[in-house]
Write a structure and sequence with these properties.
By secondary structure, this protein is an alpha/beta fold. Helices cover 45% and strands 19% of the residues. It is built from 5 helices and 6 strands; from the N terminus they run H-E-E-H-E-H-E-H-E-H-E. The strands form 2 sheets. It has a 4-stranded parallel sheet with strand order 4-3-5-6, with helices on one face. The chain has a two-stranded antiparallel sheet with strand order 1-2. Helix 1 packs across helix 2 (30-46), helix 2 crosses helix 3 and helix 4 packs across helix 5 (110-117).
Length: 130
């Protein structure tokens, strides 16, 4: 049985220079997406994210969000999309309710995230993707 990350790896091997993501005037090839997602997955694993964990993605639609999504799956985690327009308290509620191991967001949300997560259980990490 092939998993989605296996299909991305196969596409990167077969069509490395073809566009995988085209968004906002930017293009990411399959080879670039595979490499970036692998780096992100290794970063998650190094910080304690394990297979079966949940990783929250509180990111606007962007190539970086696609990399984070694939990286979470490559780490064996499930990704939990959080509406990028949601306020920090909502993101904090989802983080607690889903027992997220990690939350990925933008650095301009650092203070709001710290406040929203202050009364909940500690996560293994909060990564800021800019």
């Amino acid at each position: 049985m092939k998993l989605l990350p296996d299909l991305l790896a196969a596409s990167a091997a077969r069509f490395p220079d073809r566009p995988a993501v085209v968004m906002d005037g930017r293009t990411v090839t399959y080879a670039e997406l595979e490499a970036q997602a692998n780096r992100f997955a290794h970063s998650l694993i190094a910080r304690g994210v394990a297979p079966g964990d949940r990783v929250g993605l509180w990111l606007p639609k962007s190539p970086e969000a696609i990399v984070a999504l694939w990286g979470a799956m490559k780490a064996g985690a499930a990704y939990v999309p959080i509406d990028p327009g949601a306020p920090a308290p909502r993101a904090g509620f989802i983080a607690r309710d889903c027992a997220l191991a990690a939350l990925v967001s933008r650095s301009d949300r650092r203070a709001a995230l710290a406040e929203a997560l202050a009364d909940g259980p500690a996560m293994r990490g909060i990564w800021l993707a800019d």
